[in-house]
Design goal:
Shape: globular
Number of helices: 3
Largest sheet: 6 strands, antiparallel, barrel
Number of strands: 12
Helix content: 10-25%
Radius of gyration: 18 Å
Oligomer: single chain
Structural class: alpha+beta
Length: 204
Amino acid sequence: MFTGIVEELGEITAVETLDGACRFRLRGPVVTEGAKHGDSIAVNGVCLTVVEHQGDEFTADVMAETLNRSSLGALAVGSRVNLERPTAVGSRLGGHIVQGHVDGTGKILGREPSQHWEIVTISLPADLSRYVVEKGSITVDGISLTVVDAADDHFTVSLIPTTLALTTLGIKQPGDPVNLEVDVIAKYVERMLGARATGEEATR
């Protein structure tokens, strides 16, 4: 489990195309400290497994399913990525519960800079809109954010200077894809209420 608090802005240093998959080599001095084979690291909000680790770099394999459902397929050598290690048991939950399982992708639609923050508008797939509510939590490229406004096909977030400086959302431009993970609690509540409604219908 992750919290959506990005630890560092890493970089793709190599991309190897495999049969139905690819292998990334990534540089991240913070997240590789003490890393070992089999550890999990979130890359732009996608939970990946460390295959090899050497110095301040690690490699991770990405299956075709993940490439198709996320924006990782658009990464190339030199791409900057948000990196986060799993949260430790007993530590503070700084953001919200993030699984590292991408629900879909959106695109940056616009940016409105101001003196102390920036409003970013992001497109929202129709099948995810019911999970996104004003002042609710959403994960964008692995970043835990609060929704400012929510519509059927887009939402907005307000980014402080720290987020702009230390994550990919500071450099992404209109048209760029982003990974989205909605609040998992909302999905569980929907499933339970649906099951309850079905059960009530069956007893009538």
